[in-house]
């Protein structure tokens, strides 16, 4: 067992909490064997005697009203960032291995037209040059560095004075003053703090790339996400070549904004109309499919919900979902049985959102329940119909947010019929060529579609 001393603290590698003595089980996150010894760097052990900073009265602070954002040169990325990158801000970009983090970072660096330093501790300069050639990067003001000691990196920043710094990745940079290995909680925390201090002081923008853990969150202390201004995730499905850039935290813009891209040999290419992409291989006039106008941030996207109901061959029927919450499906199946007499007890039910998209939009309920009923009854939902609405436990259809945007997207793509909650009918606009039906319950919706 590690010995505690007055100067040593113990850090949990799972949740990042610190303790003055060692515990076998972390009191905060209950994980076993995750505490490790951490010696703070010498310079931090005692106060350096510097006076505390002076306070300032809020009304005396002058700031530029319109701080000019740096455009990444990629419209989709700018939208996700809330209009571009703010000078002096720090952006964390996470994603699964090989999803395209380095690719998008290099494209941003090339597209912004500002002086930049790309620190790639993960790949050699040759590999970076090879990728840059493939992506057609021709920037003359892009410096690359294989340095991975954080204080040396900051020294290079002082010399080059770039507007943009990319750290690829935070798990590979380290501070020599700490005993722990690169990628450990203490190293990530310290390097994050050093970058934060430098970028706030000098006003350059930092993009920090972070690996994700098995459960999909950025590896390292949760604190890193608190420290930074913006957290972006690049998501995708190995089976498809499209990628989604999503903002989950943004101090200077809306969250849950998404940008959609295609992974090509020349890099990530913007998809300007994602609905067309997700509906591209749709088979019309087949039982078990329904079209849903969902919202991803402020953007409406039409997606196909597929359901398959078949007789279970084994004792316990399966409930499998792809892209939607399986507990939500269980609730909808219970509503279908209890309120509409559609017995699912001994059937396997599979629900799939086409295109590898994952949604948590409650407005998807009506499309899911209709697709399941369509497969179970072998009854086709007419081509050109969209369904949207949240379903409650009594089988009622409840109002949803942003109905106009959803319907506008459906009308733009030539859909003819929209089934929406009655509660949304009061203030819904009309759209050319789209017949809108307001329904109070799932039963009402089924009367129209079947
Ligand atoms: N010649 C190519 N044509 C098309 N796509 C390519 C080509 N070369 C690489 N890719 C795509 O780029 C992806 C790798 O991109 P990148 O290295 O930017 O990912 P990453 O997220 O930085 O990976 P890591 O976690 O290893 O750092 C590959 O998975 C592949 O999809
Ligand atoms: Mg990479």
Question: Could you give a quick summary of the protein structure above?
Answer:
This protein is an alpha/beta fold.
Notes on the protein architecture:
β11 (258-264) and β12 (267-270) form a beta hairpin. Mean pLDDT is 88; it is low at 1-6. This protein is an alpha/beta fold and 450 residues long. The protein is 26% helix and 25% strand. A 9-stranded mixed β-sheet has the order 6-5-7-8-4-9-10-11-12, sandwiched between helices. The N and C termini lie far apart (68 Å). It has 3 domains: 9-40, no CATH class; 68-272, Rossmann fold (3-Layer(aba) Sandwich); 277-449, Ribosomal Protein S5, domain 2, CATH 3.30.230.10. α9 (326-340) crosses α10 (365-377). Magnesium ion (MG) binds next to α3. The site of adenosine-5'-triphosphate has 11 residues, from α3.
Output the keywords.
Ribosomal Protein S5, domain 2, 450 residues, binds adenosine-5'-triphosphate, 26% helix, nine-stranded mixed sheet, 3 domains, alpha/beta, Rossmann fold, binds magnesium ion
């Amino acid at each position: 067992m590690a010995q505690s001393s007055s100067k040593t603290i113990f850090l949990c590698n799972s949740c990042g909490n610190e303790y003055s003595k060692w515990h076998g089980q972390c009191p905060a996150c209950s994980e076993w064997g995750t505490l490790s010894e951490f010696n703070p760097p010498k310079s931090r052990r005692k106060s350096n005697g510097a006076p505390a900073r002076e306070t300032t009265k809020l009304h005396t602070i002058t700031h530029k009203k319109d701080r000019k954002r740096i455009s990444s040169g990629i419209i989709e990325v700018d939208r996700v960032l809330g209009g571009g990158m703010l000078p002096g801000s720090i952006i964390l970009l996470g994603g699964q291995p090989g999803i395209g983090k380095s690719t998008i970072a290099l494209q941003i660096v090339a597209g912004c037209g500002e002086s930049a330093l790309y620190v790639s501790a993960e790949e050699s300069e040759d590999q970076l040059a090879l990728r840059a050639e493939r992506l057609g990067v021709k920037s003359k003001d892009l410096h690359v560095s294989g340095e991975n000691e954080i204080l040396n990196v900051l020294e290079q920043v002082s010399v080059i004075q770039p507007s943009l710094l990319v750290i690829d990745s935070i798990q590979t940079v380290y501070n020599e003053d700490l005993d722990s290995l690169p990628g450990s909680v203490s190293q990530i925390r310290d390097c994050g703090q050093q970058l934060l201090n430098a970028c706030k002081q000098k006003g350059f923008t930092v993009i920090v790339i972070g690996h994700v853990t098995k459960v999909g969150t950025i590896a390292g202390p949760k604190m890193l996400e608190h420290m930074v201004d913006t957290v972006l995730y690049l998501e995708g499905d190995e089976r498809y070549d499209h990628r989604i850039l999503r903002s989950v935290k943004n101090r200077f813009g809306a969250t849950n904004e998404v940008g959609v891209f295609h992974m090509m040999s020349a890099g990530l290419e913007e998809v300007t109309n994602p609905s067309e992409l997700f509906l591209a291989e749709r088979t019309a006039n087949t039982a078990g499919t329904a079209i849903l106008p969902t919202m991803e941030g402020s953007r409406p996207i039409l997606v196909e919900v597929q359901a398959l109901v078949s007789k279970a061959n084994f004792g316990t029927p399966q409930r499998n979902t792809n892209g939607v919450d399986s507990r939500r499906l269980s609730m909808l199946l219970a509503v279908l049985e209890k309120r509409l007499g559609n017995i699912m007890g001994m059937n396997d039910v599979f629900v799939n959102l086409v295109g590898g998209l994952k949604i948590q939009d409650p407005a998807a309920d009506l499309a899911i329940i209709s697709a399941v009923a369509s497969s179970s009854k072998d009854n086709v939902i007419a081509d050109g119909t969209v369904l949207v609405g949240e379903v409650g436990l009594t089988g009622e259809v409840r109002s949803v947010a942003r109905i106009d945007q959803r319907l506008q997207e459906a009308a733009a793509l030539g859909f003819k019929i929209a089934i929406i909650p009655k509660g949304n009918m009061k203030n819904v606009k009309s759209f050319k060529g789209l017949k809108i039906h307001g329904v109070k319950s799932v039963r009402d919706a089924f009367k129209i579609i079947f």
